[in-house]
């Protein structure tokens, strides 16, 4: 396209005023950007124009959406960056290819017209925040340069009216960005206290475990969960039908053995054979007596009684009633309600270096706003599977004040040693990266 022909000054001036009106009438930034690169093409006859804000192309002639990686966009941004460093873009002027480096000059010849006019956009303080790259095939005459300079003031005014704040790239200069990066790096080196969260439960301290004394079926529970009991109180009863039968049979077998021993003892004075069997029958009587005593002992064990004062700690009686159990299987625990400790399941992935005496804060699910303080007393070396199927280390902690009610659950926050903030924030990502790449 060619420059407007001379002689029609009034017509050119009218078209220029109409162009200014269109620019000021833009309702938003995208509409203004589109008008800046397209509306003046018929008046000034440029082949293409590019609008740059803070060094980045925002609009191009004949393009609805700018592709950041397009060759022309990359060339314009690189050329403007080099010219900006030279300090030649503060005023409206013609840009010559000799002002840029050789690689950019080669892209200029293939991607843009040779006659380029730079129209800067200036804020209220006289600082350049953007500009228009106008390229065409014929040189720019002085009258056109005057009109473009006037148009630049209009474009700057319209842009600042719609977007009064500076682009962040201009607000944050390289020095400010470097200072901010330095502050962030120094902040990452600040030592902070490591901490992890883990599920926790209040459990009895020094409680007496009540285990099944024999193999059998539980007939009934005589206590309820968290019920107070005294030493000697009946806790539960096993089904004793089989045990009573065994004791009765053992008692009768003992009677038969004793009668046989008595009979042979009386005949031993006259019968040598009966005399030789007395020792064997006496041993058999002792065997039957031991069997009877054992049957009686099992019958006595069918009633389990409390060995100390406290409360009965277990989940549900219905869970055990009618269920066969084996000797040694844990049924409940008799504990002192005033003595409790904190049991924590620390997941393997959250494990940090912990020493005895580490501070712990417990937040109960039933009262999440109140904090209970505790200190770490023991930590397991070996991880074990939890009820949820995860591997976790068991931690035991003692309360520094009055403990909560036994059986309550919550979340424990465990504090470890101090470490740089960067390690505290990136510990889990670094561990995951190490597991992924094997370093």
Automatic annotation (TrEMBL):
<keyword id="KW-0175">Coiled coil</keyword>
<protein>
    <submittedName>
        <fullName>HlyD family efflux transporter periplasmic adaptor subunit</fullName>
    </submittedName>
</protein>
<dbReference type="InterPro" id="IPR050465">
    <property type="entry name" value="UPF0194_transport"/>
</dbReference>
